[in-house]
Specification:
Pfam families: PadR. The protein is mostly helical. It contains eight helices and five strands; from the N terminus they run αβααβαβααααββ. The protein folds into two domains: 1-62 and 78-119, Winged helix-like DNA-binding domain superfamily/Winged helix DNA-binding domain (Arc Repressor Mutant, subunit A); 121-186. A three-stranded antiparallel sheet has the order 1-3-2. Strands 4-5 form a two-stranded antiparallel sheet.
Length: 225
């Protein structure tokens, strides 16, 4: 299984853990909630779903077939297939969610992992965030060294492109520093029934840094070394 298809399977399992959905709903959520999947098509999604069903992690359910079974071939109306996470699928997703190896903080996989931080334990979040920061700091050091060696041979536009790439990585490092500090200080909140913020507990969503500059990670910001 390729890394890209593995990311898609992870995201599909995570979304279906929230609630059962049919294929159109899933694709919409992948596009809107997880922007890294904007380029995915139904031709990519449905083979993924079939694989997850074959593995026993999902089941297919009919969501209201036409009342007149004979009318379906004439009208073209077919019952929608809803995909539901099985107990084995939930267990598999939780296992994936607990992993903190290098894949967890590579560009696209990190964005998918971050999207499900609300379902991730605090210690795992910390390891993933620190791993991502370490990886980007290594990348930044290499970029600076490369720029120092080649600065004199670059034209103005290529030099600006190199600087832009470095600034993008530096920006994400600053954003990660804020997230890590929030995790360490235990700053969390939840919203009460009246909409007012309340102090949360260790298992609830975090009060993450909110700024225009620091938003959800986008792999397009990263410049390959």
């Amino acid at each position: 299984m390729s890394r890209r298809s593995g990311i898609l399977e992870f995201a599909v399992l995570g979304l279906l853990r929230e609630s059962p959905m049919h294929g159109y709903e899933l694709r919409k959520r992948l596009n809107t909630s997880l922007g890294i999947f904007r380029a995915f098509s139904y031709g990519t999604l449905y083979p993924c779903l079939k694989t997850l069903v074959a593995n026993g992690w999902l089941i297919e359910e009919s969501s209201g077939p036409p009342e007149d079974a004979h009318a379906a071939p004439l009208t073209g109306r077919r019952a929608k297939i809803v995909y539901r996470l099985t107990a084995e699928g939930k267990e598999h997703f939780e296992d994936l969610l607990s992993q903190t190896g290098p894949d967890a903080y590579e560009d696209e996989h990190f964005a998918a992992r971050f999207a499900f931080f609300g379902q991730t334990s605090r210690d795992v979040r910390m390891r993933v965030l620190e791993g991502r920061r370490s990886r980007l700091e290594e990348r930044l050091e290499k970029m600076r060294a490369s720029l120092a060696r080649t600065r004199e041979r670059l034209d103005d536009y290529t030099l600006e492109l190199q600087r832009h790439g470095m600034e993008s990585v530096e920006r994400e490092v600053r954003w990660l520093n804020e997230l890590i500090e929030s995790e360490r200080s235990g700053r969390r909140r939840r919203t009460g029934q009246d909409g007012s913020p309340q102090q949360g507990t260790s298992g609830e969503k975090d009060d993450l840094p909110r700024s225009r500059e620091h938003s959800r990670p986008d792999s397009s910001d990263d410049t390959a070394t």
